[in-house]
Design a protein that fits this description.
With about 200 residues, the protein is α+β, with helices and mostly antiparallel strands. It has helices at about 15-20, 35-40, 45-50, 55-65, 65-70, 100-110, 120-130, 185-195, and strands at about 5, 75-80, 110-115, 135, 140-150, 150-155, 160-170, 175-180. The protein starts with a strand and ends with a helix. About 40% of the residues are buried. The model is unreliable at about 1-35 and about 190-195 (pLDDT under 50).
Length: about 200
């Protein structure tokens, strides 16, 4: 499956796309990860580094995504802080319920980008895209990246916004970016998948 980082302008994302548009099919290496990220990360995977008591880690385990985040393919994971889960309804409120697994997976994969994408990469893409860049997610939908006060803000198709509040936590298989809100798949995508 090929994923890519798209830009609004014609040429802006050669730098970011190079890091996000490749997948080695799981051959045991993470070739898309910048050398400095791999060196800084050590042997700890994204799954191993997540706080097991965090709401995101519990939801990822319930959805079966913990094994993906423990694998060798590189990912960038937008992890909402636990405070962001305080007002949620639906599958994120009860992630352990088997009937919530499909919707939970759709929500969580909107928070996973293929490849290693650092905050600097997103910022450059936004600058080169004249104020915004489109970012492809693991669930096939795009997020719009913009900047607000020097911080990168990601907006989903429904208009929900999540700001990267802490990031570039490098791991052996990618990077973790902490965000202040939960993004949700568009209603149209949900309806299409239910048909």
């Amino acid at each position: 499956m090929s994923f890519r980082l798209l830009a609004v302008a014609a040429m802006p994302l050669a730098l970011v796309a190079a890091g996000c548009n490749q997948s080695d099919g799981g051959n045991g290496a993470a070739p898309n990860q910048p050398a400095e990220a791999g060196k800084d990360a050590g042997d700890q995977t994204i799954a191993a580094a997540l706080d097991k008591n965090s709401r995101f880690a519990q939801a990822a385990k319930a959805a079966g995504l913990d094994s993906t985040l423990a694998g060798s393919d590189p990912y960038t994971v937008l992890v909402p802080r636990d405070e962001a889960f305080a007002t949620v309804e639906g599958p994120l409120k009860d992630p352990a319920s088997p009937q919530n697994r499909a919707e939970l997976t759709r929500i969580l994969t909107l928070h996973i980008l293929p490849g290693t994408v650092l905050i600097e990469d997103l910022g450059k893409a936004v600058d080169n895209g004249k104020g915004k860049a489109l970012v492809q997610t693991m669930n096939g939908q795009t997020l719009t990246a913009t900047k607000d006060g020097g911080k990168v803000v990601l907006t989903d198709a429904s208009g929900n916004k999540a700001t990267i509040i802490e990031g570039d936590q490098k791991r052996s298989n990618g990077v973790v970016q902490y965000v202040d809100a939960i993004l949700t798949p568009s209603a149209e995508a949900r309806a299409a998948r239910q048909q």
